Amino acid sequence: MNIAIMGYGVVGSGVAEVLKKNHASIVKRSTQDSLELTRILDLRDFPDDENEKLFTKDFKDILNDDSIGIVVETMGGVHPAYEFVLDCLKAGKSVVTSNKELVAAKGYELLKAAEEKNVNFLFEASVGGGIPIIRPISSCLAANEIDEIAGILNGTTNFILTKMINEGLTFDAALKIAQELGYAERDPSADVEGKDACRKICILASLCFGNHVYPDEVYTEGITKITLADVEYAKAWGGVIKLIGRATRYGDGKISAMVSPAFIQGHSQLAGVDDVFNAILVRGDAIGDVVFYGRGAGKLPTASAVVADVIDCARHTVRRKLFGWDDSIADYVVNYLDIKHPFFVRAKAADIEAAKQSVSALFGDVQYLTYEGAAADEIGFITNTVAQREFDEKIAKADFEVGSVIRVTDY
Ligand code: HSE
Q1: Which numbered atom of ligand 1 lies nearest the CA of 297?
Q2: How close is the Cα of 258 to the center of ligand 1, in Å?
């Protein structure tokens, strides 16, 4: 069986590298007589590349080649990746992708197209890079009703926050280092504004809860407003700030899903996840909590997951049954304004006592936090659990100047 790669960037070239490096064991595990990379689609030229002879700029060279049974899509973006993947599936080829933007936007349609042709559409690498998470949820945890899933889903923002927490660097200084090290996406807003984590929680929520969740249904907040003062208040509380993507199943068949920075307790398994590492906590009704940890980005870790999917496609030339989810349904994802949390608030207050009276009048008993070196005209406190809508109404009435608002988790 032959393989093609569409998109020879970091991940695509990593896939070619892993296929070559571990060729003998990969072929053996695939149960095929042979498994060869025979085509690479990319509009760029790679004159000195060892795979030079395999390149084409014409998608039809892959689509119309019947010897190619598995196509790897590592182009990124929704278009033209969607059209190419759909055409490949319709032509009876299995497709493997690492493209979270594509799966979050078009996963249901592509899964359906794969089902119609009895081929596979697999995307293990789209969430958590090299961490096994899609297959464990769909197979190993299949006995459970999943109640909640929460994770550090973006390596770049985790790297930035780790630098802020451990080295006292500002957000801008830490972002610069992340860019220099090549961690941040081309457009860093996909990482720092939480869009990348949003796409990943959409995929996880769709898989865990059974209906497609689209990015525009998920309230998303990034880390650009997090300050070193916030980091210190979190330490004083006994935890750290992490960018968390989370989704919860409610008893009435609805779910919530959101991405935001959050206070995480110091003893949580998510608190010790540093640098570019990712971790995903899955809470099942039979297993309890299980945490998946590892390299969430990078050439070879991501290629590891892609090639595993390729091997799976080679082993199962007809579609793996019961892999995927149903179409989206109206009013399935609850309005984020109805989601309840405790909130951390940092505020400027010329008159601290007057501000505390205002806090009590609005929120009742709260937990005040302070740290050595805190500004004299600042207060930090954590409210009781309250719906976002109620919190927003109350904080709008405050007669102190709100600096930061960060949600507080119980994990
Ligand atoms: N930019 C992403 C991250 C890459 O930092 O996690 C992997 O999706």
Answers
A1: 7
A2: 18
Characterize the bridge pairing of strands 386-387 and 340-341.
antiparallel
Q: Which of 10, 101, 126, 183 has the most ligand 1 atoms within 8 A of CB, as the residue to mutate?
A: 183
Residue nearest to atom 4 of ligand 1 (CA): 297
- According to DSSP, residue 137 is labeled I
> Could you report how far apart the first and last alpha carbons of the chain are, in Å?
46
Is 321 a known active-site residue? Answer: no
Residue 181's Cα: distance from chain center in Å? 20
Contact of 341 with 387, CB cutoff 8 Å: no
Q: Is 302 in the pocket of ligand 1 (CB under 6 A)?
A: no
Round to whole Å and give the CA distance between 279 and 155: 10
Ligand 1 center–CA 176 separation, angstroms: 16
196 lines ligand 1 (CB under 6 A): yes
Pairing status of strand 343-348 against strand 378-382:
antiparallel
Q: Which atom belonging to ligand 1 lies closest to the Cα atom of 185?
A: 1
Closest of 289, 317, 280, 333 to residue 124, by C-alpha: 280
Catalytic residue among 93, 100, 163, 200: 200
3-state secondary structure of 259: strand
Residue in 104, 106, 370, 139 with CA at minimum distance from that of residue 235: 370
Confirm or reject: Cβ of 9 under 6 Å from ligand 1: no
Closest CA to 115 of 326, 330, 329, 309: 326
Cα–Cα distance measured from residue 172 to residue 84, given in angstroms and rounded to the nearest whole number: 38
Q: Can you point out the beta strands (E) in 155-287?
A: 219-220, 239-249, 255-265, 277-284
Compute mean pLDDT per 10 residues along the chain, 411 residues long, and list them: 96 97 97 97 96 97 98 97 98 98 98 97 96 96 96 97 97 91 78 97 98 98 97 98 97 95 96 96 96 93 97 92 89 97 96 96 98 97 98 96 96 81
